[in-house]
Amino acid sequence: MNKLDRSRIAVMNIHYQYHPFAKFLDAMERHGIRHVDLWAGYPHFLVPDATYREAAELRRELDRRSLNPICFTPKQGGYPLNIAAEDPIIRQRSLDYLLKCVEIAAELGTPMLQLLPGWGYYGKSPEEARGRACEGLRRVAERAGSLGITAILEHLQIIESNLALTRSDLAAMLREADTPHLKAVVDTCHMAVAGETLTEYFGELGDKLVHVHLNDSDQLPLGEGKLPIGGYIQELEQLGYDGYVSLEICSRLHYIDPDAALAVSLGTLDRLLS
């Protein structure tokens, strides 16, 4: 059994997006968090306009604060980005963007790069869109692997994608992409919506499941939702999971006062870990 503790907890900055990035970094230091999951979106880090020099400067700032970036999570879930797009211009733009994300992740020294499956037109068979997604994922993951980075794919909910909604969909996309450099991440919020369990995920995906997002229902701060977070922690320990666990808050109400929302999540987590 691998005991989960603060040393394996990472926090994502997505719910600080209406605040300066320095406010997030200050909060990490204040709460004693060492690992960060870097969400790259405006205004914190805008990939299309970013230079590699800016990425190097960001890495120096993280080093100065003794913060370890465990994953680069670029914004990619909406307009104008869709790796599965039927429109060849949008799809190529999305691939170019993600390939640049690989280079940025390498400059930052992050061992993981998170990817999403994109989406096809709802009401049409998803097979062609899934094929386009898998071909693109393979290209991005292969480039990542050549730089020592593991690409990790997350399935979503039907309101976000129609290509990967369950653990079996995720496993099928990994098989079709057919590259050892593409692995899986499980988000407990999406998992619960699909009616599945961590044991089922690890049972089907095995060593391809390399990262966990520990999220409450509706991606609220931990303890404000309805999911059995304590049970998930125990299950991860019983399964022998020894990787990082990222905390996300994607409830926009909590973007107003991100410090308060983070304090709720960390307070809940500390009680459960103790």
Automatic annotation (TrEMBL):
* One Pfam family of this chain: AP_endonuc_2
Q: InterPro entries this protein is in?
A: IolE/XylAMocC-like, Xyl_isomerase-like_sf, Xyl_isomerase-like_TIM-brl
Q: Which Gene3D superfamilies match?
A: Divalent-metal-dependent TIM barrel enzymes (3.20.20.150)
Q: Which domain of life is it from?
A: Bacteria
Q: Which SUPFAM superfamilies match?
A: Xylose isomerase-like
Keywords from UniProt, A to Z, are: Isomerase
Q: Where is the signal peptide?
A: none
Q: Where is the Xylose isomerase-like TIM barrel domain?
A: 26-262
What GO molecular functions are on record for this protein? Answer: isomerase activity
From the Swiss-Prot or TrEMBL record, give the protein name. Sugar phosphate isomerase/epimerase family protein
Q: What does UniProt list as this organism's lineage? A: Bacteria, Bacillati, Bacillota, Bacilli, Bacillales
